[in-house]
Amino acid sequence: MSARLRISRTHYPVHALGPGNRLTVWVQGCTLSCKGCMSLDTWPADGGVEASVTELAALWRSAVEQGADGLTVSGGEPLQQADDLATFLTAADEVRREVARELDFLVYTGYDEDELDETRLAVLALADVVVFGRFEVAKPTKLVWRGSANQRMVPRTELGRRRYSGFIDHAPEKGPLQIEVRGNDPWIIGTPRKGTLRNLDRSLKSVGLRVTDTTWRP
Ligand code: SF4
Hints:
Elements: E1 4-14, E2 22-27, E3 49-52, H1 53-65, E4 70-75, H2 82-98, E5 104-109, H3 118-123, E6 129-132, E7 152-155, H4 158-164, E8 177-182, E9 185-190, H5 196-206
Parallel strand pairs: 2-4, 4-5, 5-6
Antiparallel strand pairs: 1-2, 1-3, 6-7, 8-9
Iron/sulfur cluster binds at residues 30, 32-34, 37, 39, 42, 75-77, 110, 134-135.
């Protein structure tokens, strides 16, 4: 298995991007340039690190052994590495076929479905649910696991429909967010609501901490 994906990072367990505990893979590289994107660090195609599909499949297997409920692929723009992502999802699917639990695949893309060519659409064949659409800063939302109101959550399999249909219109008072620290770098996992990052800046400032280097400011 020689396919390699350029990724920003991975994390397990993530509980703010889909139901349950999930392995999340953030793919590196995005040319869509959404205004207000909170992940500017994922834009350069030559940033991040290269990971083989074998390594990523091993991470997924390990997460499954630890009780993962699903896999989330976000970015960056996952479909800008369509062939290698398809190889990874195929390998991840082989792992989930071996276990006697239902494990779902959630894929985020900044594209709308009608923008996708056959190659990119084919990647989504193994996704149980897809969140489509650019982040639009002028369309804030409380919809769970979405960054803006235009983004559509579309179940594509029977498992996806069963597990996600109840979340399509779900707008909890508090959206799920997770903060993890790796080395000296904290990072926010999830889809922060309008004002959350500004409030975080202010809160940190109020206790004497100045944030100088963020992924949401150029
Ligand atoms: S929000 Fe997503 S699709 Fe938009 S620029 Fe950022 S990484 Fe790319």
